[in-house]
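ok here's the first one, seq then struct tokens
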Amino acid sequence: MTETTVFPEGFLWGGATAANQVEGAYDVGGKGLSVQDVLPHGGIGSPRSEGPTPDNLKLEAIDFYHRYADDIALFARMGFKTYRFSIAWSRIFPKGDEAEPNEEGLAFYDRVLDELEKHGIEPLVTISHYETPLHLAETYDGWVSRDLIGFYENYARTLFERYGARVKYWLTFNEINSLLHAPFMSGGISTPKEQLGEQALYQAMHHELVASARATRIAREVAPNAQIGCMVLSMPVYPLSPDPADVLQVMKSDHANLVYGDVHTRGVYPGYFLRTLHEKGIALDITDQDRDDLTNTVDFVSFSYYMSIAETAGPAKKVSGAGNIMGGVPNPTLEASEWGWQIDPVGLRIVLNQFWDRWQKPLFIVENGLGAKDQLVEVDGVKTVVDDYRIAYLNDHLVQVGEAITDGVDVLGYTSWGCIDLVSASTAQLSKRYGFIYVDRNDDGSGSLARHPKKSFHWYAEVIRTNGASLTS
């Protein structure tokens, strides 16, 4: 039987991780501390510690730093076309404000790229993924300070000069629109959230957007063949009722989330955002140079997708599941994961169409997955996880990606989040597992770190081999 698929030839199938959630080796090779090293219980509203503590699983994580070659070989067995990973800023600039980079850190990522090239896997690199150097957080109050633009510019230029000929796809900031909701994790802002004024938060947002645009300009100078993308957290919003007041509330909620992509793709702040600032009494410090920088718009838009929310103008209980960065009203028509994230495959088709219609830029789904408590079992003498629930979740979401492609949306690729089990960003647990590969480590730090392919490992390999033709509607 001939296999047919709507996924285009060259579609970039793969998986995604972040340095702070997989690498470990937090004090190896000249690496400095990042904000993640003092967030032992996750980054969404959890208190920080004074320094690294034994209960912070990210300090060792899954030891990708020493096991990267074997892990990449497992990705290759699945047939990955691309692997999204982040570079730890404090591995390259331990404090963040040095003039010269740490050669040991640069050499580590050279070795990672060597392995990817050996297996024919395209790297997709995130420059800053929730791991601002701790020194920048404590000394400058993170992105509240305009100084961070220059430090980030130096960091990005260093990466483009070192790896520009080897890396085609780059993302400037992970989920840049999370800054207002998780200021320490996302923006390295040390001022406690309850003491942080909106003026400072929006100024930090502006600084990140300028830094992202400057990095885009530098890449075009240093690595002209590179493609530069932004990365946003997507969350489609539905009205709880057809009441126009609820629909208007949805529009406002959407605007608060879409402004980041609007600036990245259009190069100016939209009128609705300027109105928001005016009504809040906020006057941003925006220089003429900033305005010129922002015109360096991205080549593509990447995003994470995990859930949708509903909104209403009236009183309603907000989503309360652990690790929700952006709150909303639960949708009574949807089921939720063990962590309270509502499961909505159709929402992925909706957001793909919304982004394409709005921005007319190629789209890249760089995070999507199901966090669940997996059970390691033995099947025919082999340790594995029978994760049919994950297969069903991913299948249903990928079917909707195919529908969006049929709608005419230009989709570059799909990288499932946490393709190998890692430490959760929101809760700092290992028991919240996303991967196709089980890692033998537990929330108390015990375990051998052995790797075991799950049932979904073989399912995803077939999806990639058939370019999506094996998906079931």
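and now the second one, same deal
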Amino acid sequence: MTSPAPATALITGASSGIGATYADRLARRGHDLVLVARDVTRLEALANRLRASTGVRVEVFPADLARPEDVLRVAGRIGGDPAIGMLVNNAGMAVSGPVAAADPAKLAAMVQLNVAAASQLAVAAAQAFAARGSGTIVNLASVLALAPELFNGVYNATKAFMLVLSQSLQHELAGSGVRVQAVLPGATRTEIWSRAGVDVATFPESFVMGVEEMVDAALAGLDQGEQVTLPALPEAADWAAFEAARLALQPNLSRDRPAARYRPQDVAA
């Protein structure tokens, strides 16, 4: 008996960087691809290269996920195409610098892309894949989801949103045949930095991972069944301890009385 062909993977932000590297790696694994991004010229060049080098089917799907109507088109494709069994939810942007000094319009655009669009596509995939009984959702977050003191607070919050959404979907979809992985890269050599006005060359060399290494590590984590993958973290036990500490809080997060330290103190007569 022959194994079934890998499901078609839809990748957002596929024209460069992390998305383009996922496209290369998944094509090598035999996945047909639907590549989503704004830059049609880059998408076509990538698609032609992957068709020639791997023989898989590659469709270019131009869309600007900053536009709600384009998000709806992509969500509709995920829900309406039974061949699609993998979503790499990668499209995003960054704004650098202090939140208090940032352009509110840029922050709003970042929330639209990193949160509104990404969550809409994740939900579309969760619903479609659960109905089909199989599928994989890969949500690209960031280690900054765990480090609110660093970089831009709104950017970090958008990545924390994707981590929490992923964990919630993992709980909801348990037993459905749908896998959900959150990937939390550290600093990675991609164009997101220059677009945010940051020169990545100013970072210590040991601080920045190459995009190919990062994606290869993320896919290795997926193969190993990880629900949260931190490509740079040396000890998986450290994440397990972090999660255990978080879960240990749950029994006391909601109670019928305030904690003793918040109650009025008795006054001696």
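notes on #2: Residues 8-237 form a domain with the Rossmann fold fold (CATH 3.40.50.720). The longest strand covers residues 84-89.
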